[in-house]
């Protein structure tokens, strides 16, 4: 059973550039959430996608946008990169309508470095 | 809004000693609580979760946690530390019992196990 997969694992960008990160959810899951984990910090919620729509959003600027495809995979896009966007970006999948326990399954993350 | 505080950003224990990682939450309604572990350069793995019912929750790798409503705490314990337990541990809370699984994480506790 494939877990949550993310790509790329590492990437380096320069300020002002744009980046796209990709995520495939765990088999059977239909909801994808994205989290940003800065160095030495806990993950912070960016947004959640279900049925190809953004369902919830954390306190992140509009430079952060996303997309969910019919096969439930998802992309996170960040425009006009800032040095402060350097972080590990984690994708988590779950079932939108499930047992209600709130359990998320995480991928290994994409580490973005902005120079 | 809910929040989580993890007391002690770094904890060191000797191999075989008791592990105690502290987590206090703030919530206006009964929360769902989680402990995740993160090994270097990896994503988050669920250790255990509290939803409803029994307040003493057992997880993987010999860890357990007790939900204490009166103390708003959910401390993580393990009777005997193993070298392989060295990792970063995150406590998280969500208020939503249904579909909107937005987790709020603490800032993490780095556990070091000394030989």
Structure description:
The complex is a heterodimer of chains A (115) and B (115). Chain A is mainly β and 115 residues long. Chain A contains no helices and 11 strands. Chain A has strands spanning 5-7, 10-13, 19-24, 31-37, 44-50, 53-57, 64-68, 74-78, 87-94, 105-106, 110-114. In chain A, a hairpin with a 5-residue loop joins strand 7 (64-68) and strand 8 (74-78). Chain A starts with a strand and ends with a strand. The model of chain A has no long low-confidence stretch (mean pLDDT 92). Chain B is mainly beta and 115 residues long. Chain B has no helices and 11 strands. In chain B, the strands form 2 sheets. In chain B, strands 2, 4, 5, 9, 10 and 11 form a 6-stranded mixed sheet that branches. A 5-stranded antiparallel sheet of chain B has the order 1-3-8-7-6, with no helix packed on it. In chain B, strand 4 and strand 5 form a beta hairpin. Chain B is globular and about 40 Å long. The model of chain B has no long low-confidence stretch (mean pLDDT 90). The chains are: A mainly beta (115), B mainly beta (115). At the A-B interface, strand 4, strand 5, strand 9 and strand 10 of A face strand 4, strand 5, strand 9 and strand 10 of B.
Main traits of this protein?
heterodimer; A: about 120 residues; mainly beta; seven-stranded mixed sheet; four-stranded antiparallel sheet; 11 strands; about 50% strand; B: about 120 residues; six-stranded mixed sheet; five-stranded antiparallel sheet; about 55% strand; globular
